[in-house]
User: Which sequence fits this backbone?
């Protein structure tokens, strides 16, 4: 997709946060779309990956070595800060409270996942409304489809990785089936969309 079409999707849109969900294949997908974003990136990036507890700290370390963005694990009552990539801690659901701080919980898994993408996306949609960008990437279950639909209903921009290039297409296909997203893009275009979002500050 050309820059003009991507820019049109962002036109006149105020952005306060970006939320990304992924499961199987998600680490490689993130490594493709996030490098190149500067430390001064004007939004927090809230990320939920289905990972085992033992791997969570490794994710922070691995991405810190590859990105200009600060990389942190979200902490309870922490405030999302621009220019920072936050990972949901393993085995905790990550919610966004009305006062725009993180909340961690041990509620039952959703779609066999904790953290669940749906919980983060749905609560972020409630808080940020049309100022939220939701991105759903490769994955092997239905987690994230309902969350992305909630972002769309709230007026946020919804983006799904093209299932044809996803390592596992179940998650993006379910999101598309449940509610048509604003954009279905290959990873190279999602990366470009994030870059162009910096030029769209209101």
Assistant:
């Amino acid at each position: 997709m050309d820059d003009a079409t991507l820019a049109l999707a962002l036109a006149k849109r105020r952005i306060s946060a970006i939320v990304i969900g992924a499961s199987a294949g998600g680490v490689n997908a993130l490594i493709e779309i996030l490098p190149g974003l500067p430390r001064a990136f004007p939004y927090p990036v809230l990320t939920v990956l289905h990972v085992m507890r033992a791997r969570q700290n490794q994710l922070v370390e691995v991405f810190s070595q590859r990105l200009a963005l600060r990389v942190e694990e979200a902490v309870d009552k922490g405030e999302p800060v621009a220019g920072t990539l936050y990972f949901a801690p393993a085995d905790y659901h990550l919610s966004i409270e009305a006062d725009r701080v993180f909340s961690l919980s041990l509620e039952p898994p959703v779609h066999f996942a904790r953290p669940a993408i749906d919980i983060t996306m749905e609560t972020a949609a409630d808080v940020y409304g049309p100022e939220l960008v939701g991105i759903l990437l490769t994955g092997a279950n239905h987690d994230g489809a309902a969350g992305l639909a909630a972002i769309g209903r709230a007026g946020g921009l919804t983006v799904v990785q093209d299932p044809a290039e996803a390592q596992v297409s179940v998650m993006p296909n379910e999101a598309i089936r449940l509610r048509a997203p604003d954009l279905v893009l290959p990873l190279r275009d999602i990366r470009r969309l994030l870059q162009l979002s910096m030029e769209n500050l209101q």
Summary: The CA atoms of residues 145 and 175 lie 4 Å apart.
